[in-house]
Structures are given as C-alpha cells and as structure tokens.
Amino acid sequence: MNSFGAGAPANTKGRDLETALQRSGFYPRLVADVVNDALDGQESLAHLIHLETHFDRTEVHRHITVLVLTTDMLVITHVDDHQLDDSGEQIVAQVSTESVPVTQINSVVLSYIYSQPQDYKPSDPARELTLAIAWSGGQRVEMAPASCGDPACDADHGYSGSIAQEDIALRISAEAEGLQAVADAKAFARALRAVNTGTGAPAHMALGTTRFPAFGARLGRSHYRR
C-alpha cells in the first residue's frame, strides 16, 4: 500500500506527510512523487522536512530535505533547484534519494543550544538543535589553526581539529524556524531511536493514532552530506 499519492489509500502519517509537503511550497507535487517512489510502498511512521533558502547576489537558491521513517528504512530525499539563465525562466530540479536500513544506522546525535543556562528551568525550550545521523562510517573533519593561549605569541603551533561521524546533519533554529520546529525535530529523533533500537515507536507515535508533528521550514539553516 502506498503511503500517499493520488488514487492510493493513505494512512494518517501519509496524509500528514503530504500536507507538510504542500505547506512547504517547494515543488510539492514533484517532491511528493519522488518521496512516494522512494518509499516503494512502505508506510510512513514519522517524517521530518527541512527547507532552506539562501541568496547568491541576484539569485535565490532553495533545497529541501525530506526524511521519512518506516519500520525498516530511513528514506532520505533531497531536491535542489537551479537557474539555467539569468532571467530565471529556465529552471531544473536535481533530485537524489537514499534508502538506509534502520539496522544500519550507527548513531543518532542531538546537539542543543540553550540561552542563559544559569537561569534554566525544565520548561525552557532549546534555542537550537542539530540532528546528526550516521550510517556509512563517513567522517567530517574540521581543522583550525592551533594556539598556545598567549595573544602576543606569533609562533606556528600547527593545527587542531575534530572528527565527527555523520552522513546527514540538519540544524534547526528556533529563531529562524520557530520553537515548534525544534520540538518536531526532537520528536523525529525519538521515533528514529525507538525503531533503530528495536523498541518500537512510542505509543503516541503509533501508526493510525495521533498525528506526528509535521515539520516545515522556509528559512532553515542546514547542511546535507552524501
């Protein structure tokens, strides 16, 4: 049974996913067809949609990342658009999809930023969240010049750096995308962890019950690594 799409029965999560894609406003019919094809008939347990817009001189570039979790797979769809002429009349969409068995996922990392931690209360939401998922063993290396801490020292201390394992990382900012976007990303990570560890989705995320929070952002900041 298809998760969503014209002429096909749709479960609650499939309808929520289709609604979220429509709300994102980024070629929703094209993206929905691509996602539906990548799901290959599997039903959606949870989804996360991240839309980024950035400006390059006179051009506007957008790309969307759609994560869909099923009982067996994490399906990642990424769509970019590009202008072929200065007037912007000729546009192409570049699409990539990847299906990762949930048993292959090595780690699900959540990084938070909180404002004024000295005044923290349990009800305080995170200001920013980064969701990083690793499954292929790919590593990201960040390097920077090292220093000895002496501001007057001009000696060459080489470089220091860090290595992080990730295949995809989405950065969600409450300031740019709203507090609900951060909460939705956290909920998706919780559902992914539950399926990945074999504990099953939490009761409030079960198929056909309450709606899983849809996540759509028009001015998100993220990066996608293949």
Label the overall shape.
Answer: globular
Total count of helical runs of at least 4 residues = 4
The N- and C-terminal alpha carbons lie at a distance of 29 Å
| Order of adjacent strands in the largest pleated sheet | 1-2-3-4
Cα-based radius of gyration, to the nearest Å:
20 Å
Helix content: 10-25%
Helix and strand content put the structural class at alpha+beta
Q: Give the ordered list of helices and strands.
A: HHEEEEEEEEEHH
Got a strand count?
A: 9
Could you tell me the strand content as a percent range?
A: 25-35%
Largest sheet: 4 strands, antiparallel
Mean pLDDT, all residues: 77
* Uncertain parts: 5-10, 202-226
Overview of the molecule:
By secondary structure, this protein is an alpha+beta fold. The protein is 21% helix and 35% strand. It is built from 4 helices and 9 strands; from the N terminus they run ααβββββββββαα. The chain has helices at 12-24, 28-39, 174-177, 179-196, and strands at residues 46-56, 59-69, 73-83, 91-101, 107-113, 128-134, 139-145, 159-165, 168-173. The strands form 3 sheets. Strands 1-2-3-4 form a 4-stranded antiparallel beta sheet. The protein has a 3-stranded antiparallel beta sheet with strand order 5-6-9. The longest helix is centred in the last third of the chain and has 18 residues, at 179-196. The two termini are 29 Å apart.
